[in-house]
Amino acid sequence: MRYRKTFLFMMLLGIMATFTLGAQTRPVTITHWYWADNPNYSKVMQQIAAEFNATNGKGITVVAQEYPWDGGAYSETLFRAVMGGGGPDTSSFKLTSTPLFTANGLLVNLDPWLAKWPDRDKIDASLYNTMRKASGTNSVYVMPWNTQVLYVYYRPSMFRRMGVKVPTTYEEFLEACRKLTFDIDGDGKTDVYGFGMRGARGGHEPWGSFIQARGGTFEDFTTPQAIAGMQDFIDLYRKGYAPPTAPMDGFNEIIANFKSGKTAMTIHHIGSSIGMIDTFGTDVDAFPFPGGVGRWTSMGDTENVMLKGCKERDAAFEWLAYLATGKGQEMWCTATGNVPVSKDVQKLPFFQNNRFMKVSIEGAPYAGIFPILDTTTEWISTIWPNTVAAALTGKMTAAEAMRQLQKGLWGK
User: Fold this and answer.
1) How far apart (Å, rounded) are the C-alpha atoms in residues 269 and 91?
2) pLDDT of residue 71
3) What is the 3-state secondary structure (H, E, C) of 278-308?
4) Cβ-contact 174, 289 below 8 angstroms
5) Could you report the per-residue pLDDT of 267-301, keeping only the tens digit for each?
6) CA atoms in the 13 A half-sphere facing the CB of 255
C-alpha cells in the first residue's frame, strides 16, 4: 500500500508539472514556416527554435521548416496551403500579403494576446499602427519581427569641404542638396551632385519622404501639400542637383554613383552599409531623412503571423513573442543585420555601436509603408516611374503628375 501511495503521489507531481492553471500546460508542437536568404540565416533560425524549445519551460516544441522565398512565391505557397486546410501554425510573413490573407480569414487576430502581454510596450506603438493599416482594420493580425529603415547616406569629407552641416530639418536637407553640387576641377561642369535621386522603379519609397515632409499624405496626392513635395523633387532634378540620369536610375545606379563620388548623398537602408564601409572606410555616415511639416520614411519588413488552422494558440503566441522581444529577436537581428523591433534589444551594445543601426533605430518611429491595394503592384512597377520620369523631364507639371498618381493608385 505504501508503494502504491508513493506511485500515485509521483504521478500527481508529474501531472502538476505538466498542467498549470491559466497557462500553457501540456506538451505541444508548433510548426513554423520561414524563408532564409542564405544557408547561414537558415542555420540561425534552427538555432533559435532549438533555444526556444530548451528554455520556454512550458512544454512547447517548435519545428521550424524552411521554404524558398522564390521571388515572393513563398507567400503564394503559404496562401494555397492554408486555404486548402493545411499549412503551418505560424509563419514568417510580409505585410503586403496582409489584405489577401485577412480577406479570406486566414490570420488569427492577435489583439486578445497583445492585451495581456507584459512585453507589449517594448515595441513602439507606431509599428502596431502600421500592422493595423496593413490589414485595413483596427486589429493587429501581424506580429512585428524586424525591419529595414531608409535613411540618407552621406560623405563627411564632402560636407566638410563645402561647409555643410548634417541637416536636421527638411529645408536644410534641400539646401544641402544645392550646396553639395559642385565643380571639382574648375572646368565649369558639375562633378558632384548633391543628391543621388532614384527615379526608376523602387524610387517611390525615398520620394514618399518628400511628399510627407511638406505635409502631404498617401491618401490624397492632389493636395497642395503633396504637390509641393512633388515640386521639390522635380526641382532637385531640374536645377541640376541630381545626376542627369536620375529618371532612369534604379538601385544599382544610385549606389554606383555614390560609391564613385558622383553624388554626396543618397537614400537606402542598412543593407548597403557593409559595401559602403568597404568602399569608404570612415568617410561614410548616415542621418535620418529630416522632417518638415510632416515626417516619414519607408520601412522594409519581415513579420510573423499565426494561421487560422493553429489549434494551440497560446503556445503559438509564446513563440511569436519570443521572436519579437525575446532571445530570438536578438539572435536573428544580430545575425542578419536587420533592425530589431524590441526596444530592449535596440539598446544592446551590438546595435548601439553600429552607427548605421543607430540611425535606423532613430528613424523607426516614423517609418511606414505605402497603402496596400489591388492597384499597388502596378502603381509601383509602372505608373510611378513613368509618371515621375515625365514630370522630371518637363512633360507634365507637378500637379498633373500627382493627379495621375492619385488615379493610378486610388482609381479617382
Assistant:
1) 25
2) 87
3) HHHCCCCEEECCCCCCCCCEEEEEEEEEEEC
4) no
5) 999 999 999 999 999 999 999 999 999 999 999 99
6) 15
Please, are residues 292 and 213 in contact by the beta-carbon 8 Å criterion? yes
Q: How many angstroms from the chain centroid is the CA of residue 394?
A: 33
Task: Mention every residue, 6+ apart, whose C-beta is less than 8 A from residue 203.
Answer: 197, 249, 250, 384, 385, 388
CA distance 243 to 198: 10
Q: Average of pLDDT values for 8-23? A: 38
pTM: 0.88
> How are beta strands 151-154 and 297-306 bridged, if at all?
unpaired
User: Are 243 and 196 a contacting pair, CB within 8 Å?
Assistant: yes
∠ Cα 146 365 353 (to 5°): 65
Cell representation of residue 151: 535613411
- Residue ranges of domains in the chain, CATH in brackets: 25-148+300-361 (3.40.190.10), 151-288+373-410 (3.40.190.10)
Which tens digit of pLDDT belongs to each residue from 164-183? 999 999 999 999 999 999 99
Residue 224 exposed, middle or buried by CB count within 10 Å (0-12, 13-18, 19+): exposed
User: What is d(CA 24, CA 58) in angstroms, rounded to the nearest whole number?
Assistant: 6
- Secondary structure in 3-state letters for the chain: CHHHHHHHHHHHHHHHHHCCCCCCCCCEEEEEEECCCCHHHHHHHHHHHHHHHHHCCCCEEEEEEECCCHHHHHHHHHHHHHHCCCCCCEEEECHHHHHHHHHCCCECCCHHHHHCCCCHHHECHHHHHHHHHHHCCCCCCCEEEEEEECEEEECHHHHHHHCCCCCCCHHHHHHHHHHCCECCCCCCCCCEECCECCCCCCCHHHHHHHHHHCCCCCCCCCCHHHHHHHHHHHHHHHCCCCCCCHHHCCHHHHHHHHHCCCECEEEECHHHHHHHHHHHCCCCEEECCCCCCCCCEEEEEEEEEEECCCCCHHHHHHHHHHHHHCHHHHHHHHHHCCEECEHHHHCCHHHHCCHHHHHHHHHHHHEECCCCCCCHHHHHHHHHHHHHHHHHCCCCCHHHHHHHHHHHHHCC
Fill in the amino acid letter for 47. Answer: Q
